[in-house]
Design brief:
The chain is of the alpha/beta class and about 140 residues long. About 55% of the residues lie in helices and about 10% in strands. The chain has a single domain, classed as Rossmann fold (3-Layer(aba) Sandwich), CATH 3.40.50. The longest helix is centred in the first third of the chain and has 14 residues.
């Protein structure tokens, strides 16, 4: 199982796949998940990041629609952010100097025994035992 970072969902909605290769790659990844060919999970934090980005870039109405679509996404496991995840995220912030949201995503991976994260965010290239898979290699 692979963890899907929020930027995969955001590129798929906000970027034009004809002019932005990351949009096309993101849509291919999401199709693979929806069709059940790619076991995948993400956290409830991803919903927040996706809805916030769409609200900021497009409109609150589209953000509401896309938030609902995210919650109904086929074959995507949405993981909870609980006290254990947040405590581990705090440790990552202290020891690796990560940003709070990045530390939550990595901590969620760790707490759920997920060893790969699909993301275009190079901040995940940290020696914490989670391998980042760039969009073009997913």
């Amino acid at each position: 199982m692979q963890y899907i970072d929020s930027n995969v969902f955001i590129y798929a909605v906000l970027a034009n796949e004809k002019t932005e290769p990351k949009a096309r790659l993101s849509k291919q990844i999401l199709i693979g998940i929806a069709e059940g060919r790619m076991p995948a999970a993400t956290s409830s934090l991803t919903w927040d990041e996706v809805v916030w980005s769409i609200r900021h870039e497009i409109s609150p109405e589209i953000a509401i629609e896309e938030g609902a679509r995210f919650l109904e996404f086929p074959n995507l496991r949405i993981l909870s952010i609980d006290e254990k995840v947040v405590n581990r995220a705090q440790t990552l912030i202290e020891t690796k100097k990560l940003k709070p949201r990045d530390s939550i995503h990595l901590a969620c991976c760790m707490e759920n025994n997920i060893s790969e994260i699909i993301s275009d965010d190079k901040d995940f290239d940290m020696p914490v035992g989670i391998k980042r898979i760039p969009l073009e290699k997913a």
